[in-house]
Amino acid sequence: MENIMTNENKMSRRRALSGLGVAMATVAAAPVLAGAALPEQTGFAPVDLQDPTTKYPKPPFTHQNQPWPALASKMVPRPDHGEETYKGSGRLAGRKALITGGDSGMGRAAAIAYAREGADVAINYLPQEEPDAREVVALIKKAGQKAVAIPGDLREESFCKKLVDEAAKQLGGLDIVVSNAARQQSHPSILDISSDQFDWTIKTNIYAPFWIIKAALPYLKPGSSIIGTTSVQATDPSPDLYDYAQTKAATTNFLKSLAKQLGPKGIRVNGVAPGPIWTPLQMGGGSTPEKLREFGKDTPLGRPGQPAELASIYVQLAANDASYSTGQIYGAAGGSGQP
Ligand code: NAD
Ligand code: MG
User: Fold this and answer.
1) Could you say which ligand is closest to the alpha carbon of residue 181?
2) Residue nearest to atom 33 of ligand 1 (CA)
3) For ligand 1, is residue 114 a contact (CB within 6 Å)?
4) Does 132 sit in the ligand 1 pocket, CB within 6 Å?
5) Protein residue whose Cα sits closest to atom 29 of ligand 1
């Protein structure tokens, strides 16, 4: 309501100042004064158009393979998480966010963007990913925000609960939960997937969000936002991602279920569905070295996406102005795939 009034006021002012008579200008004066305290959007320097096909590295890529969990800091080329580019405008000022998998990939891009939008941010990651996590903590602090680092394995229910409680305690509350961590391993055949592997994938991708969201709910006030990272795999599964792809179908599904359950409580629940994105997930067994060489080539943009290209989606879904978006899946897949 406030925003609608604001826009009307701005329009009234423009009409009033665009050559109408003094009498008309006087008539418009009351609403103009009502909106006078609001900032005017003027004086922006023009932004260059960017061709999305040439904006970032394209295949072929050099051979790379890392032991799981891979590090962003060891990738060639290094992914862009928005470190040098993301500019905030206070869209999340005062918010308190927990992001799983916040050390790298989409989680890191969201962490950087959230901090630059004015949020305090807690990240979870695996202890082996400490070098990546330290970079993120430094970036959050550089943005002038509180950074909380909570390493630990999400396959443990007790840790998931501790993680949420600790994040809420250290941040002084919680109003954004980004359930983003995942396990993806490529296996050519279902026969190659042991029960232990299957369990590992399901625990990380399905049980952990269940435990985390349950633990977070008591902290979430109306206006809070839950965001899950799903995938184009939810609807178009690759043959070598039998276990992973089905967890993404389930993720899309539980996000929509929760949106219906939590809508009446004023808590929004949405998902982001990436296509092929240049992240450690793919390097540590998520993809094969052969597939990585040509990664993203078959998309209409002819290249993989970079985590930075999804940051604004995570911001948008958390921000107050997306207040009518819940149960939605926002895609970013370079032109192929459906959310
Ligand atoms: P990433 O490797 O940077 O992030 C995944 C993170 O999951 C890791 O950093 C790690 O901290 C965390 N993680 C994994 N197992 C864990 C465990 N047991 N305990 C705690 N943390 C654990 O890769 P990413 O691609 O940014 O992945 C983020 C999300 O994006 C995932 O949900 C993934 O499924 C999704 N996704 C990625 C792609 C892609 O092409 N990269 C495409 C579609 C969806
Ligand atoms: Mg990582």
Assistant:
1) 1
2) 182
3) no
4) no
5) 180
What is the model's pTM?
0.90
Residues 184-199 have pLDDT tens digits of 999 999 999 999 999 9
Task: Confirm or reject CATH 1.10.260.40 for domain 94-332, answering yes or no.
Answer: no
Strand partners, 228: 179, 271
Q: How many CB atoms lie within 10 A of CB 263?
A: 13
What are the residue ranges spanned by the domains of the chain? Answer: 94-332
Residues in the chain: 339
Q: Could you give the angle at the alpha carbon of 289 between the alpha carbons of 288 and 293, nearest 5°?
A: 115
- In our burial notation (b when 16+ CB lie closer than 10 A, e otherwise), range 234-248 reads bbebeebbbbbbbbb
> In the sheet where 96-100 sits, what is the strand order?
147-151, 120-125, 96-100, 176-179, 225-229, 268-274, 329-332
* Residues 301, 50: Cα–Cα separation, whole Å: 13
Strand partners, 270: 227
**Which residue is catalytic, options 244, 314, 324, 330?**
244
286 Cβ closer than 6 Å to some ligand 1 atom = no
Q: Got the DSSP string for 246-312?
A: HHHHHHHHHHHHHHHHHGGGT-EEEEEEE-SB-SHHIIIIIS-HHHHHTTTTTSTTSS-B-GGGGHH
Q: If you measure from the C-alpha of residue 217 to the centroid of ligand 2, how many angstroms do you get, rounded to a whole number?
A: 25
CB within 8 Å of 248: residues ≥ 6 apart: 205, 230, 231, 233, 234
Ion ligand 2 residues within 5 Å by Cβ = 103-104, 129, 280
CA atoms within 13 A on the CB side of 39: 4
204 within ligand 1 shell (Cβ under 6 A): yes
> Is 244 among the catalytic positions?
yes
pLDDT tens per residue across span 81-121: 999 999 999 999 999 999 999 999 999 999 999 999 999 99
Rounded CA separation 69/143 (Å): 27
- CA dist., res. 146 & res. 24, Å (int): 50
